[in-house]
Structure formats: structure tokens, C-alpha cells
Amino acid sequence: MSRYRITVNLEWTNACNARCSMCPRHMIGQTEIMTESCFATVIKRMNSAEVFRVVIAGYGEPSIHPQFGKFSDMLRGNPVRFDMVSNGHALDIKKLRKIDGSIHLLVVSFSSIVKEVYDKTHVRLDQNRVIRNILCAAETLNKTKLAISLTPTIECLHTLPETIEWFHSRGITALTMSPTLYNRAGSLRQSQESEARLREIIRQYGLRSQEMEFIPSLWDCVKQTCSNRFHCMPRNAVVAIAANGDYQYCFNDIGRKRRMGNVRDMSLAEALKLREGTGSDPDLCAGCNIKGRYASREIAAVIRHYWSQGKSSRG
Ligand SMILES: C[S@@+](CC[C@H](N)C(=O)[O-])C[C@H]1O[C@@H](n2cnc3c(N)ncnc32)[C@H](O)[C@@H]1O
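^ thats the input. predicted complex w/ S-adenosylmethionine below
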């Protein structure tokens, strides 16, 4: 067992019904769909002592997995917290009922209430349908919490006030944003708003900053840092498991350049042990824009966050 807790980013499939402007999908290889036996193994590998939360996301769209209902049922009653990130397009009432109570938090990614902006960002998705599903989720979900992840691209930011206003007026107030547009280990060439400006926007509009959601506690961060040869806090806080069951060196390794073994042969603790001994990877890390995410100012913000919230409520 590892000496600290991490977040797991779990991919049910790398197939996607969207072609988002901020996702370098051309880097993704062949389509992979997690098998039932692989998922059963993943579930067995997860335990609350090692895992703070499992986020079902990866590089595809979990709601289009052919066994969505079965997989959701397999999570029911599990003591580990499972969350899901979805673009919401396929989340109809039947699927929403399936996840109610088996998923702790549903996060729907949404770029803009302005249709032209949405269509240019969430390419191939029908904004009206996504909106209908979000409103249906807000009404239908009793046990599962709902949050919205707002897209941090330059193209979306000028419509942010009206997008926020629209959600607030419908009683949806858990709005989050990443302070970084990940360049996916240098593979995304899209123009970026600076992290400082994004943090300012997050503060200005009272959004929840997403990087806080991956950190179980300050003490876990300290232990992660002491245990890993490579002091990249965003990487060390997360273990990505691909749809084929491979543990990844880094969740930003969209091209799957570096695997660490498979859930069939290796426990999470063994995968972490293996990763702890690795240094930075020139292919992935040289062009990556997230290593400095938790700079001293952000660490101070994390400390303030935990001070005000109390560590116990994070567990
Ligand atoms: C990669 S998607 C996968 C799950 C699902 N298909 C979706 O769109 O929500 C997971 C989350 O990452 C966000 N995302 C995608 N590309 C990003 C990037 N380059 N930087 C930061 N977040 C990104 C998406 O908006 C979404 O909230």
C-alpha cells in the first residue's frame, strides 16, 4: 500500500462523439473500449486508503460506452468515491437514472451559452440537446451531485458572464474551471490565456478552481513530493488508467508514449512504486505547461483552502 492518496483518472473508452477544439485527438491511436473484466479488475484495485477519488473521464466520452448501464451498476455501494466527467450529449434520462447514487459527482463540460461559440468549441455536439440533458440532470439526480466544467479557452472567455448568469438563473451554481488549458505534453497548439489571468477570472466570478479537486490533503501532497524522484505535483497527484487497463506515466500523455504496466498484472501500489523512481520524460515533459501549476502562490492558496475548509470534510 502506498503512503499517500492519489486521484485516479479512469478511461472507459477513448472514443468520443465530439471533436473539441481544445483536444488534440489526432494524437490518439486506435479506439479502445474497456472490457467488463478489465473494469472489474480496476474496481478490485481501488481502495479508499490509497485512492481519494476516481474520475471517470480519460480522453473519450464515458457516456457512449456500450456497457454504460452495467458499468454504472458495478459501482453501486463501492466505498471509493467515483465521479464522472462528460460532455452531456448522450446523457439522457435513462443514463442519468443509472448513475444516480452510483456516481458521487457528475461534471458536465460546457463551453458557452452562445451557440456559435459552443459549436466552434464542442464541435459535433448539439448544444440544445446538451442543455436539455443538463436541465434534466439538475431535476432528476437525487443522490448524485451536479457540477459544470467551463472551458478555459480564449474563444469562450468573452461569453463567460452570460454563461454563468444562465446557469445561476437555473439554480446550477457548482461551476468549475481549470486554471490551465493543458497543452497535452506540448501537442496542443491552440493559443492560451495565461494561467495568472485564468486564476484572476476564476476568482472574479467565484468559480471553483479545478486543481484543488485532485488533492486529498496537504499531508498527502507532502508525502507524494517526498516519495517521487520527479517533483511534478500535478502528475504525482493523479494516476491515469487507460481504457485498455494500462497505468500511464502521466495523464497528459495523450499519445500513450509511456505505459507503466497493466491493471491485470499490477496493483496500484506497485504502479506508484514504479512511477516514483522515474525522472522527467524529455518527450513528454519538455513541452508540457503544467509542471509549475502548484507554484508557491498556488501552494499558499491550497493551504488557505484547507485551512478554511478543514481537512476532515475533504475525506
Ligand atoms: C478530456 S475530457 C473527457 C471527458 C468528456 N469527453 C468531456 O468532454 O467532458 C475531460 C475534461 O477535460 C477538459 N479538457 C479538455 N481538453 C482540455 C485542455 N486542453 N485543458 C484543460 N482541460 C481540458 C474537458 O473540458 C473536460 O471537462
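Residues 311-315 have pLDDT under 50 and may be disordered.
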